[in-house]
Every structure is written in C-alpha cells, then in structure tokens.
C-alpha cells in the first residue's frame, strides 16, 4: 500500500493539480465575499453570515467539482496508452491500487479544505468582523472533508470506469442538484452529496442532534465501503477498456 501511495504521489509531482486546488477554493471564496459585501445590510451575524455565503458556493458547487477533477486526473495516466494492462498485470493487489488513489485524493481535498479555512479567516479579518473567530467552522470543515471522502469513493469508481476526463465531472455537477433536492425534502442523509451539505453546515448552522450526528458518520462510512467494494470488485472481474 505504501508503494502504491508513493507511486500515485509521484504521478502528481510535475502536474498542475496544485493550481486547481488553489484556484477553485479562492474563486468560490471571492464570489461568496462579494455576495456578503453587497448584502451586509441584511447579513448581520458577523463570521457566521460570511460562512453562509462562502460555504454555499464552495461546499455546494466548487468542492464537488474539485473532487471530480482530482479523481479524473488521478486516473488519467492509466487510461492512456493501455496502461491499465500494466497496472492490472503487476504484482500489486487491485484493492491497493484503488485505496492508494482514494487516499491521495482525500489528502488533496484536505489540503483544499485547509486553504479554504485560511482564506475564510483572512476574509473575515479584512472585513473586520466583530467577535472571535468561530471555532465551530473548523469542525464543519473537517466534517465536510469526511463527507467528501464518500464522494471521492463514488467519483473514483466513475473515473476508473469512464475514460473521458469531463464526463465524471458532468455527472458530479448533476449529482449536486440531486443532492440539493434530497436535502430540501429532508432525505439528505441518504445521498453523499447531501451529506456534504450537512457536514459543512452550508444551508443550516444548527447543531446536529446526537442521533443526526451518529447517522451522519455512519452513512458516510457506509457509502465509502459500498463504493469502494463495488469499484474493487469491478476491477477484479471486468476488463478495462483501454483502446
């Protein structure tokens, strides 16, 4: 597993994925800050009001797209020049290949989350928002990262199966709107994209009850296990189209 992870990190060594990780959170935060600035007369809750604006654009749209881009990118090399043939015939377990990719993408998303939090703190400081920095937002960011792993598991399975770079990203964008609908009808816990909304407290900053919190963590774990199992089983039992 360690060698597989090292190999995945080596593939990213001279890539521009770091630029994408920096640009998308920055753009989403700029849009949210602009919206906050225009509506300061209505948004009177300081740091929390700023969070509602920046997390809305980031957590609902930019983060799922960023996850899809990372998953498509980390599978791009295998889809080129019949490289899947070499990967699947090498003395490395299929599960190690999958989980190495999942771990690397999860690390990339964690870095994006850390950058987003730093930019959020900087924006609040520049706006001279009253009161101390809300530590709850750090918990929301980490919870959102955990929810993003289930989306990573799903998107990685799609990217392993689909050779097109853009198609899994388009599927992710469609799933975002499905997730919004599931959240509105109070069924968000049954869909990974809705769990991201819940995890980052994008649309509601109310504290989760004990039951809701346990269900959130359990459902995310269930989705991760489900998507990982499906993807690994497919890699073991079906040929990859590499032509």
From TrEMBL:
Residues in coiled coil: none
Transmembrane segment boundaries: 20-38, 58-77, 98-123, 143-162, 169-194, 214-232
Keywords recorded for this protein, A-Z: Membrane, Transmembrane, Transmembrane helix
Short name of one Pfam family: ABC2_membrane_4
Domain of life: Bacteria
Protein name stated in the entry: Multidrug ABC transporter permease
Gene (name only): cdd2_2
